[in-house]
What we know:
Blueprint: E1 5-10, E2 19-24, E3 29-34, E4 66-67, E5 76-77, H1 80-98, E6 103-107, H2 113-127, E7 132-134, H3 141-151, H4 161-165, E8 168-172, H5 176-179, H6 181-193, E9 198-202, H7 208-211, E10 215-217, H8 224-237, H9 243-249, E11 250-251, H10 253-260, H11 265-272, H12 276-288, E12 292-296, H13 298-301, H14 306-320, E13 329-332, H15 339-345, E14 351-352, E15 356-357, H16 361-371, H17 384-392, E16 398-402, H18 406-409, H19 413-422, E17 425-430, E18 443-446, E19 455-458, E20 463-467, H20 480-495, H21 500-503, H22 509-520, H23 532-538, E21 541-542, E22 569-570, E23 589-594, H24 610-613, E24 621-623, H25 625-630, E25 638-642, E26 647-654, E27 662-666, E28 699-705, E29 710-717, H26 730-743, E30 751-757, E31 763-770, H27 776-785, E32 793-797, E33 802-809, E34 812-819, H28 825-833, E35 862-864, E36 869-870, H29 871-879, H30 885-892, H31 902-912, E37 919-920
Parallel strand pairs: 6-7, 6-16, 8-9, 8-12, 9-10, 10-37, 11-22, 12-13, 16-17, 17-18, 23-27, 24-26
Antiparallel strand pairs: 1-2, 2-3, 4-5, 4-18, 14-15, 19-20, 20-21, 23-28, 24-27, 25-26, 25-28, 29-31, 29-34, 30-31, 32-33, 33-34, 35-36
Helix pairs in contact: 1-20, 2-15, 2-20, 2-22, 3-14, 8-11, 8-12, 8-14, 11-12, 17-19, 29-31
Amino acid sequence: MTALRQVRSxxxxxxxxxxxxxxxDGARITEVSGDIxxxxxxxxxxxxGSTLHLTTLATTRAxxxxxxxxxDLPRTRVGWGEALEHAAGRFAAIIKEHGPDAVAFxxxxxxxxxxxxxxxxxxxxxxxxxxxxxNSRLCMSSAVSAYKRTLGADAPPCCYEDIDLAGCIxxxxxxxxxxxxxxxxxxxDAKAARPELKLIVIDPRKTDTAAAADLHLxxxxxxxxxxxxxxxxxxxxxxxxxxxxxAAHTTGFExxxxxxxxxxxxxxxxxxxxxxxxxxxxxxxxxESPAALSLWCQGLNQSHHGSDNAAALIHLHLATGQIAKPGxxxxxxxxxPNAMGGREVGAMANLLGGHRDSEDPVDRxxxxxxxxxxxxxxxxxxxxxxxxxxxxxxxxxxVWIACTNPAQSLPDQAGVREALAAAExxxxxxxxxxxxxxxxxxxxxxxxxxxxxxxxxxxxxxRISRVRAALAPPGQARADWLIVRDFALCLxxxxxxxxxxxxxxxxxxxxxxxxxxxxxxxxxxxxxAMSHELLEAQGPQQWPMPAGSASGRLRLFEDKxxxxxxxxxxxxxxxxxxxxxxxxxxxxxxxxxxxLRDQWHGMSRTGKVAQLMNHAELPGVTMHPADLERRGxxxxxxxxxxxxxxNVVLPARASIEQKPGHVFVAMHWGARRLSHAGVxxxxxxxxxxxSKQPELKHAAVSISRVDLPWRGLLLRQANGAQLSKPAxxxxxxxxxxxxxxxxxLLADFAYASLTLSxxxxxxxxxxxxxxxxxxxxLLAAIAAAAGMDRTPLQYDDIRLGIHKRALIEDGRLSGxxxxxxxxxxxxxxxxxxxxxAAEPLRRWLFAPMASIPNAPPSRGRIVCNxxxxxxxxxxxxxxxxxxxxxxxxNELQCGSGCGACLPELSRLLPEACAAPRQKVTA
Length: 922
Ligand code: SF4
């Protein structure tokens, strides 16, 4: 047996930046645990981080460069030399004919800082364009813009330790319990240790985060700014501001005070949809607290006035002096693992390295001098949404996309797909070959991914950590920075740039980091003391850490000198209207989008782990029960969700998490697993004027019944001897192979969803619906894709259009196909998940029965992933007298693993006991 080795690295999901310990045997990553020495998580991981080892499946990895000669031809395998030479030739020809702004680079907050740095240098110093933007534009740019407008620099002043010290925590536009679970556990710990700590949550939904709050302000969409301005009004007129701090350390207060004079709590209450008393309470808790901390995320940022939303929140801190001291300050939580790193190296169109601005000639000259080139381009670059619009219009001809999936994640999906189809040349640098964007790639370059890469990332609290490789990348996959370096060398030759060799002479990732460090010296984020060697020796460090410092800085601006020319923070003019895409008689509902607990972004990684699907297995649109009833819709029925741009079909769900008039669709589901591109089809590409961040959180929609009488269900499971294998073994690989084959057939149905269920041997579930019976060839293609085309057990009723198939292997059901009639779907699924022997089931297999004698019970949604505990078990335990978290832990073990389920368990307890303990505005 091969001995296991351990490597310390960082989780590749959210911006909490948890340290992980990767166990591997030299060939496979076998386990992931939390790094108890990492300050971000002290050993904790959430459900996503703790299952990272299960995501290392081989089936969908991009292993070789692939190139297609023409758009309609399939890609074929080529060597790295040919791939990069071809890409350089195409890019050089376009640049020579149309200029450098005819090409663009769209990169990712999941790249490491060193990858980002080399990309940025390629775009600005070699190509000569500012057309480089990151998908961080979709999540963080409003926070960046608000920090710069108010504090003078993109400088989150707080640290995670502030959670332990705060007297009041205000969470705005963030379901922290789902999006940043380990950080939320720290909030829960703080609350448990100090029950007097006030937790305020501002969110249009009653999320698990809101359920834990002392005060939940369930606001109307687009009214965040108004709410914060009304809180400021209360702080001013109730004498809770810090006049000395305002006078000594800020500018612009008087103008803002005058602007909010008429915005009384009563006036704001009407716009925000909350009670005036709750606005007053929130302001008093914030203003009277010895230390008030605010945490915010996409609910504020993803708005067409996201920058104003965040600035209005920062104003509350400036007005009360609740900043730059322990436990206090405005703290933006970053969505992606290295969104901060991208901001530091300037990998967004309007930024340059070291927190410089690409539109500032002095900053451009400084960067040009650092790189030893005459000048940097001055033409403004395109932000993400603008970039794809320019591609659609033919102004940008070639795009290089790295480690991101715009054909799932950008708003106005129809426009984005049109753009990718219209582009002359699309390069995709990716670890996975099955993303929605992969289908548009003329050249696919296989990239290394988590567990295979070396470099650094910066988390939400400015902490820079070393990312380490446990294994070499598979096949011919390469580290991202290396791919870019080699492309730059090729392109330099094509462009006749003799200095390309000097510019891209990096021999190691540590060398790239050294050059990045040099660009920060003398800047607000100065990390002159840092190197890979120092991070190895001393562990993760926060910026700034100038040369000569022994460690990084915990908090910023403690000397009250802000990063503005006069050292004073600024109150800025903000919108005081509650604005959003208008609802009307045709589109009367507010659509909100957000995260699921166990999924990450477009599911290219988490969507392949059955265990992570169990908490929310199917897509859906969640509505208040009264809204469903008014429309005569039952939960589970398929409905059409229509916006002014598109229609999508989804199952309806009922939940009192939603206010009446508001609906919710999770952001993760795209065309890889649905018959449509998901919620982003519905959303307009409206941009914030400062940050250019698109409004991904709101659209006006309608919901209507949809008549799709033809139904189909396919269940498939690798069976027999494979059942005993671990989830990342052959059973999971086989399920993923079927999953990929079926994915290409979904678009032909009015509704299709492709999901996984179960645990060790994943059960693939394909749900289909259509207005009429699909063509026989399409159904045959589905059967073939799932390996069900030669099953001996068949039932066909040609007259009724019913076709059923069953596959039994090693005495167990391993495949069921029900086309035209699906009544037995639920019990067959439960039987397969329970691994029941097939023989007693044989006589019922094709019966149109919703249940059979001795049918295995369906367990319901899995709440605790670590210990596989379902909601039905939890409710049964509570019904039999268990009334505490400790009791549930003892009885079922739930909540004793990663802890991601703790907020939901807390919620189930009082709900089941009919004893709600929190104050919730309706
Ligand atoms: Fe990863 Fe979860 Fe930690 Fe985020 S909170 S870094 S997803 S383990």
